[in-house]
Amino acid sequence: MSKHSEEEPLDLVGVGIGPFNLSLAALADGLPGLRTAFLEQSTAFRWHAGMMIEGATLQVPFLADLVSLVDPTSRWSFLNYMRHRERLFPFYFAERFHIQRIEYDAYCRWVSEQLPACRFGHVVNTVRWDTARRAFDVDFTRVGADGEAQGVGQLSARHLVLGVGTAPHVPEHLRPLVDDETEPVWHSAEYLAHRDELLSADHVTVVGSGQSGAEVFLDLLRRRPVGREGLAWIARTPAFAPMEYSKLGLEQFTPDYTRYFQGLAEPVRDRLLPQQWQLYKGVSAETLGDIQDELYRRSLDDTWPDVMLTPGIDLRSVGRSGGRLELKFSHLQQASHGTLATDGLVLATGYTERSVTTLTESMAPHIRKDAGGRPQIDEAYRLVLGEPVEGSVFVQNAERHSHGVGAPDLGLAAWRSAVILNALTGDQAYPLPSRTAFTTFGIDGTWHAPGGAMVSSGVSSGAVPG
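Above: the chain's sequence. Below: its structure in token form.
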């Protein structure tokens, strides 16, 4: 296999091309003289391919595209994509603020195919700091559509950005079943690839009370015969709860809230995050309404659909009995136990952040950690590094512990990319607003109270929300 290198270090190399690094690549494309490359192991852009259920929409408005909330004049905006597709008028008359997920995926692919900095089929193996050259060396393997290696190479860059995304989360005690290809047990990330198998099963159980679990359950419900649905939907949460989507509630996904959260003491942040689960783990009210509407339609002949929806369930184990899957569970509030026989199992158990330290193992001694052993990340989304590393390592969607619930939110993608580019260039490459929310999230220094009154406040760094 051939080995290729570029002598002059680039300004920035990105690892991974999901929506967040693609946003960064698109905004970097508008800065003259900035030399970048973004490497992705897949051979083309694909975003949650297993959950491209027909009709499913984004949970954020179309303005949360790759660039618009920072630079609405960018040629990489969603509206410009629609113009190129000659679909602006149909989109205008459709009056859709929330676009279909499949349309967002196609838009991102359109951008990725035109940006010269995006290089697909590049598997990054290691990154390390070269003290002599004062740059990062990025070793990669080029792969073909079949996944076979075609060559190796190396890039050098003054700075890095890691956008390695998330991985499907499977509870440890259920992992052997998911890994066994003979078992009808899949994570929701693989749902579409196995939908036909699930539809042919006599009974299917969906586990998980988030948006993915709700969408899978609804899709199966709509496709199974009336009166013979054979479906169960169970979850640990005490209710199938709606996601927080009030207008003021959504201000917790603003840069103002991100700055506020990042400035809190670490123990406060750690206690606050679990309390905010409905900001990102609930189900859209529209999807919950669609489920109830479908169930009601199926009960018009005075019979109840053959479904079971039960929250408060802890799935303890899954085994085999009489050729079927046997789910053993306990009810968290009743402290009771039971079993459920099913023929297919979908685990909508969420996603976990991929560790950014895997690629940076050679720099591990230089990465500062917080009290919880997690990488410290500053206000500009940089890993806090010690000597001798002089370059910056930025991260995308790896900072929920330090920056809050907005880390995985598409609505903050363009803003975070602009923050990174401003830090990278040492200039206001993209001017950012000083205020983005009507809510004032904290009292720092002098607080401006209603009526023009000034209230001075001393804030204890150990304050913990009640």
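The longest helix spans residues 101-114.
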